[in-house]
Design goal:
The protein is of the alpha/beta class. The protein has a domain of 201 residues: FAD/NAD(P)-binding domain. Helix content is 36%, strand content 26%. It contains 14 helices and 18 strands. The strands form four sheets. Strands 5-4-13-14-15-12-16 form a seven-stranded mixed sheet, sandwiched between helices. The C terminus is likely disordered. The protein binds flavin-adenine dinucleotide. Flavin-adenine dinucleotide binds next to α1, β2 and α10.
Length: 391
């Protein structure tokens, strides 16, 4: 195998493009967005992501782009502080880390590295995928001529088109977690309350969560989470904004300001928290799924990017080694990690977004309590022994 079509220039797609491109493969990455998709919150460089980026030779560049953060702080609907967890908590192993960069910046670093070796087609996608005798796959596109590839990779996210074309409809693989999340960037105006480096979280009864965290200078990354399994169609943005406004009406703090900013944000996104479970293998012939399209563990796992980086490395390692067992080898390497990441620890949702005022007060009291010396020493020891639960 020497030629690949990668569908999706996200974290997984561009990481794989770097590795195959450097190995001399002829790689085309087709991305449906008109340009590299930016936006999203931060990526934690503790642990697995750091190791893969180091092996790619891109860690130093990522470390120059860290977001200055002081920690997480929980506030009530009036903005009054209820609990904080500074980045120094738990010897730097707490909820927010000193070593986080925006997903936007990670995507740019990977994209630049990939673009040295591969071709990107923006504003296009695959229309059909047809296995050919001999194993290659013929792809047709909306805006480019058909072409044949030794390998086709669906790195096109949770709502993967490659998966729909080759494996069947999304309903077969989607496991909704009953939550939805909107995220976008707010550009600060004169009078915008500063964050001073804090990731501010305001929980409200009914499992609502409103959050703002530091972004690039002069920008704040906003997140709004709420219970939902289905959302109005992407083709009806007004219905999506109207839903948010209805759900968050009267939620307090800066919510009204955020709802207004959502309507004009360039990178506004709204989606349900889902897991993707593809039983029976991530490949059909020489078409293979990678990243969220294969195994989305949901943002609640905190592991989406780490798995995308690891998965791209595992897939590249397997196909560069060659042989008919390459794609099963990739799956064997990744399945245990994916299965572990998809097991959200019990109570994860309840801690993230408690249902009642009492639950919110209990959660913030627990956030304070876990940082008092006897408990934090015990937790530090547990983390050292069993590893860290991702944020
Ligand atoms: C803009 C953006 C913001 C995000 N923000 C967060 C966040 O704040 N928190 C979080 O936990 N996770 C976030 N994610 C998801 C996170 O990036 C992934 O969970 C993780 O990095 C796995 O990456 P992936 O490459 O598999 O998928 P993604 O990063 O989702 O990348 C998939 C890529 O495929 C492209 N694509 C989709 N459909 C097609 C198609 N039909 N044809 C061609 N290309 C297609 C998409 O435009 C995207 O560029 C975000 C994803 C995106 C795209």
């Amino acid at each position: 195998m020497r030629s690949a079509l990668i569908v999706g220039a996200g974290i997984a797609g561009d990481t794989l493009a770097v590795l195959l491109g450097r190995a001399g493969w002829r790689v085309t990455v087709v991305e449906i967005a008109p340009r590299l998709r930016t936006g999203g919150q931060t990526v934690d460089l503790r642990g697995d992501s750091r190791e893969v980026l180091d092996r790619l030779g891109l860690l130093d560049e990522c470390l120059t782009r860290l977001v200055p953060q002081r920690g997480a702080a929980w506030i009530d609907e009036t903005g009054r502080l209820m609990a904080t967890m500074p980045v120094e908590a738990f010897d730097g192993q707490g909820y927010v880390s000193k070593e986080e960069l925006l997903r936007t910046d990670l995507a740019r670093v990977l994209h630049r590295a990939a673009a040295e070796h591969v071709t990107h087609w923006f504003g296009d996608t695959v229309d059909t995928l047809e296995p050919l005798p001999g194993g290659a796959v013929r792809a047709t596109f909306r805006h480019h001529e058909p072409a044949d590839y030794d390998l086709v990779v669906g790195a096109d996210g949770t709502h993967s088109r490659v998966r729909s074309l080759t494996f069947g409809p999304e309903e077969r693989y989607r496991r909704p977690l009953g939550f939805a999340h909107a995220w976008f960037t707010l550009t600060e105006q004169p009078g915008t309350p500063p964050l001073d480096g804090w990731f501010l979280i305001c929980n409200r009864p009914g499992r609502l969560l409103v959050a703002a965290r530091p972004g690039h200078p002069g920008r704040q990354e906003i997140g709004l989470s709420f219970p939902a399994t289905e959302l109005p169609s992407r083709r009806d943005p007004q219905a999506r904004f109207a839903l948010l406004e209805q759900v968050f009406a009267g939620a307090g703090w800066r919510t009204a300001e955020f709802l207004a900013a959502a309507r004009t944000a360039e990178d506004f996104a709204l989606d349900t928290y889902d897991q993707i479970v593809v039983e029976g293998g991530w490949h059909r012939g020489r078409t293979v799924l990678l990243g969220d399209s294969a195994w989305c563990a949901s943002p609640l796992s905190g592991l989406g990017t780490a798995l995308a980086l690891q998965g791209a490395e595992a897939l590249a390692t397997a196909v560069l080694a060659g042989g008919p067992g390459a794609l099963p080898d990739y799956e064997r390497a990744m399945r245990p990690r994916v299965d572990a990441a998809q097991k959200l620890f019990p109570g994860r949702l309840a801690i993230y977004a408690p249902n009642t005022g009492l639950g919110i007060r209990a959660m913030t009291a627990a956030m304070r309590a876990v940082q008092t010396p006897p408990v934090s020493l015990l937790l530090n020891r547990l983390v050292a022994t069993h590893g860290r639960e991702p944020s």
